[in-house]
Fold these 4 entries.
Entry 1:
Amino acid sequence: MARPSPFPPSTSTPGVGHVHLNLQPPSQPVFSSLSFSYPLKLVVSAPHTLTAPSLSTAPSTIPLLFLLTYGGGLVSADHISLTLTLAPTTRLVIATQGSTKIFRPLSPSSTALTRQDIHTHIAADAALWFAPDPCQPFAQSRYAQRQIFSLDVRGGANLGLIDWVSEGRGARGEKWEMETWRGRNEVWDDVKSTAAPVVVVVGGEKDKKKRRRRLVLRDNVLLQGPDIHTRVDGLGVFGTLILIGPLLCSLATFFVDEFKALPRIGARDWSGRDSQQASAAAAASTEEAEEEETEAERRERWRKRRQAREKKDGVLWTAASVRGAVVVKFGAREVEGAKIWLGDMLREEGTVGREFGPGGLICVK
């Protein structure tokens, strides 16, 4: 006969996590709440000190939170549910220590779905830089993620999100052989908790009505079916970058301006035959550049080198403004090429390193 356990029954739900970041006077960020349960694991790394933030109200340090799973991935039927809350004027960087692997079901006939849900609330003047490594779904895996971000947009809340997925285990010949991969990102303007009620005069009488949440953008990605590899046209990684808020306005404008500077159809050799000549010309111009060149000249030389590298790595990307946010879509033949391109863009503009510290660039190393 089995003996009863001497320990009280667990009250935690598997895969559930809660994070609440507050600011302790004068400007020290502290986690007032941080909890998680298997298979989710949250690890707080040493915070990074900001050397030259643009705002005097910036916190003294930026916490770095690693979002991990036991074994480096999620097995069939795992469900992660994480709730994040950032108090006013706080800043947080979330990263991973490698790609999140999505394992296939043990039984080919299984219809179990691996899920990850993240709900985030960002208060006025707070900022979140969410930059995990690419998701890596294995062949025959089934995965769905939903990431919902509620921001006090009018109060100056900020969000930077990188969400990308790779073709799978390329070393084993996998090329988009997952059964299902679904991703949804939603950004909401949450004004009901901070804004005063709207006063509407109807028939001479005042009627107070609360403002409702406003959807800023919804981004959906659906990879499903046996012919995914034919539809991605040779890409080995596909991703989305979402930027919103005054702290990231400069970075958002930078992506839009660089996209406008790309050669248009008719001015670009899509066959790629001139990529070697472009690389050689860019290298020659670098060697011949004078030490006292202007910033515009230096930026132009950097742009030519970057565009030559884009051709070499098969990088395709676009950027567009959507209701005050900027959405960047990008892809490349390999994950390494996408990391080089994205890291080059982020380091050249400088906002991420300046406002979030070195931890914000871990995903592109």
Note: DSSP finds six helices and 20 strands in the chain.
Entry 2:
Amino acid sequence: MDENAASEALVPQFKLDRLLNQDQGGRRVTLLGSINDKPTLLTAERAAFPSDIKTLEVFHKNLVDVNNLGTNDIYHWYLASVGQAKDNPPDLKLNLISPCTEKHIKKYSPQGVRMVTETPGIYEDHVRPYVAKQREEGRLDWVFNILEGRKEQNDIIYRDPGQDGAKDEAFLLAPDLNWDRKTLTSLHLLALVERRDLWSLRDLNKSHIVWLKHMRGKVVEATVKKYPEIDHDQLKLYMHYQPTFYHLHIHVVHVMLEPTGTQAIGKAFGLENIISQLESLSGDNKNAGMSDVTLTYTLGESHDLWTQVFQPLKEGGKG
């Protein structure tokens, strides 16, 4: 038997003892077992998807056992398998957006990234009008479906009426559509505020400090109650800027969730750091807030704010 054949023959001889580790959102596992009574480690990782159209067409046709996890407006998410026996667990999490918009296509297409610095003046003169336009185009229907009780009600983990029943402090906690609902180390939840006048972290000010602390405490408490395998100090809370949608929300993820671009510096702003920054603002003016500070963050080169605001400012020598 040649060397390659001898090596290949080892894998079927592996006898599993236990799962040692699972990472990359459950896409890679390390197993502890034995071969010929000798301790052996076996790491299995899902191969990369093919990139040629013909192979992808075959892949799509081989999808089986497609089970819907939820539907809200144009968004649908599923668990599925690729050509496996029916009794096997699903090995794919699918997200479907139909009909998708040009903005969706840009978001999910490969693109270069730029660091931009947004002063209070740039925010007021350029960014806030852009955000207002996005909200007017009805891109938040799926959020309002949840808040108004039309969709995803069975998925809501916790609903808070606000401190002492203050309606402008109410919020709810639900799974993010990108989470498979089972792999705890890739846990991803969203806390959505019910009020509609807060669009992003830019709208937070010193008067919101107590509420933000209350929200953080309740979100962590509700999460560990729902998922007792997770401890308080295994959760990370942050907000995006720029966010994907302009309705104030907090991301709640497991600290072991492997960081992607959405958790990187310049995209994710820790909730504790936001609270600390608000507390450090000088003076007694309760309206002093995040709209008064300069923020540096990343933008994709296909993002409208890059093409319409920051690139022209750069080329004009003003940014």
Note: The chain is about 30% helix and 30% strand.
Entry 3:
Amino acid sequence: MGSRVGETPPETFSKVLMWAEITYRLSTGQGLTGSESIRSVAIGRDGPKIGAFFTKSSRPTISQSLKDLLAPDEKFKGLDLSRRALGSLLHLVQDSFAKGHTQRKLLNPGDRLDPGKDDFKPGTWAKLGEIQNYHTYKMEGEQAAHHAEYDKFDVTKDWAGLWGAKDAIAQSIKAVNFWVEKRRWEDGVEDWAKECFKYAADATPSNTRV
């Protein structure tokens, strides 16, 4: 989730929270419609605005719209941009619990069958807490292989068998319920996002170790 090796936890957190707010506001029509240029979006708490990551020659360019960012070259005439934005938010939430993207504190190490493995006692699963490292992704090599390993799962099995899945599902349900209610970002959604993506006091700069 970090954009580079060595990125500090506050840097990554501010970017994650920025995108969470943009996608949530867009999904609920709270101040964003998708027609806004990337340059004009002023959302961002303690870090750069989204326009800082685009230029006149990037794809999309800084002058193109949020719709161009979320649905580039979209051919489907029935596109619902609010649902596309919600999907992006859910992707962000779920990645934050995936072992290939973050290292979170394990809250129940005593439930492991073997301290060195991810198998848990029957009826238990990995219960995850604050983020200790926002990993950054390499497209090749050992880290990429490990990332791919955690992307594979037999969906006919109990989700308890996939690291982080239970927590990711619970947090996704909260996000969807906020969306259904059209809850205002300021009325509890922001607090939820800050808690969901929170990093630990001893969190380390982004790395590629999975």
Note: The mean pLDDT is 92.
Entry 4:
Amino acid sequence: MLAEDVVTGLRYVKEKEEKLRTDGTAAEITLVGHSSGGGLAQLVLSKQLTRVRALILVGAIPCFGSAEVAEFESLMPEYESLNWPIGMLRPFINVRRVLAGISGWDSGERIMVVAGGLDRICSVPLMRRMAQQYRTAVGDLVKEKKIDETEGAVGDAEEAPVEKCTESRGAGVRFTIVEGAGHHVQNDLQRDDGARRILDFVKQLDGE
């Protein structure tokens, strides 16, 4: 039901945007998901309910499941936790189908994974592992000629310090750590650092 709600919302936004355009071009969606919403964003693409031009995952439930997340959740009071990780304890999406739901692989990065450096729920190691899993899948699909080749699709990702963040890029997937931020990167004091990194990612989607 939640996945269908997301698709309905995306359809509404897309139609609204296209009505405002005077050149008749189609609107392209960049899907952003945080925490369990990030898991839901991946699920929508895995079920092939929509197509987007890019996917941004911020402290998201990883594609391979949230067993590690549940360990932290067990320490939280019931009124706060609401048992939200239970539906995503085990692998719940098909990574290759997620990639198939994203267009434009031949023209730059299409997935961004953002981690808070102090996130205790969706930790940096979990987010780095998720980014690498997507990179591996991209490389496999390129070799199988099922998606167009993107720069560095088969090579290793390179780590580089960027301002207060640490980034790695490769195989069309960008991984960013916002140092000092916790799970709610968008609310923490470091939110501007994270916003700049996301804006940079979006600009390259537009060819800037």
Note: The CA atoms of residues 46 and 78 lie 30 Å apart.
